[in-house]
Amino acid sequence: MQGRKEAPHIKAGPFKIRLPFVHYKFEGADYLQGLLMCAVCLGAIPMLQEYLGMPFEIAMAVVVLNGFLYLAHVTLGDPVIPGWITPAIPLLMIHISNYKIGVDRMHALIAFEMSLGILAVFLGVTGLGKKIVSIVPNAMQAGIIMGSGFAAVMVIFKEGARFDQYPISITLCVGIGFYLLFSNHFKEIRNNNNILKYISNLGILPVIVLAIFIAPIVGETSWPTIEWGITKPDFLTLFKDWTPLGKLGFPSLNMFISSIPMVLSSYIVLFGDMIQSEALLEDASKFRDDELIDYNPNRSHLVFGLRNFVMSIIGPDLTMCGPLWAAMQVVICERYKKGKKSMDSINGGAASFRMGTFTGYLILPIVTLVRPILGIALALTMLIQGYVSVRVGVMKAKTHNDLGIAGVMAAVLATRGATIGLLVGIILCLLIKIGNKKQEVMIYDNELEEKEA
Length: 453
Prior knowledge:
Distance between the termini: 50 Å
Number of helices: 23
Order of helices and strands: EEEHHHHHHHHHHHHHHHHEHHHHHHH
Number of strands: 4
Low-confidence stretches: 446-453
Largest sheet: 2 strands, parallel
Mean pLDDT: 86
Shape: globular
Structural class: mainly alpha
């Protein structure tokens, strides 16, 4: 469309460097929203404490470092709100749980995250990402996504886990969260109410705020003790005791080799995020004739690949470094669609939001407010992700055989890990799919009978 101009930038090879206040305007509304939504990101802390044995201040340092690297996307020309690779987190928990907590488990995490970063950078440089995913059968893609969903639910409901610690709070908050996010009834009534629309746009934040009150009322947590000042992440101890540059040293070659199935599974999961990023930005651009939005999947590969590689060295993180926080990207895009007066540039909206979350990590009153319910916030995140992953995985399967293979593979992935899960998927595809004529019935075609070869 004529009249569209790309936002100002400094060209630097595959990157387009954009600096705040120089190449885009600061968006106050998105910054304030990010300030509140940092509570969701802090949900990484109980994972790091439980699975890696990190003290709170060291886990906080990891979250702050990851939060700072979120800013790299818009800065390097990727106009998105990045986030975790949430569907893969439960699978990664299973993978590292095969190793004794301590040096071995940290080495497993470092080897995985470094390998994922190297793979993403390689695919970004060569442009091979889309080709690699396209050769993976739909049945296996569905199995990986469904398996991550099963694992997410199992993480919360296994004996002695989060549900046993906060049964009432999780039941009430998850119920309300599912209603706000997925209920057709709520979708109908929110369309006629601006307040409900705004609540809907905040994702799971309203439920987290609710948990702050529900959990102490039912006696499952204490009331928060608000402290004033700034947080004190322990970067020195993190670098000294928890990174390969310190006492840990680098993982062995065997650790890198054993991480390959988990790396491939995670990549297949996160590839969907890039497809979603492109679709959301393309849709948003239809409503504006003043800005040319340039989203390049290869550049996105480079940015989140570098983030994973850097974090593997300075602050290994279970949440990983993903290319998209889909829920908040939707919120930003919706505001962007309203016109230039609402949001000058998509780059300003995305960057200002992540500036807000980064600031929130450092504000002690916010951190101490949500600290008692971080375990509940984690349960909310995992259960909602489980629901979405199973739904998306089922829809990814194209035929009855696809769905059967995916179901078995997903169960094995969730219980035995990525290596055995991928092996089961490959064997089932070979046994069932090889030799089939293209006569398999699509899942939703109930009028034909499936013809096996």
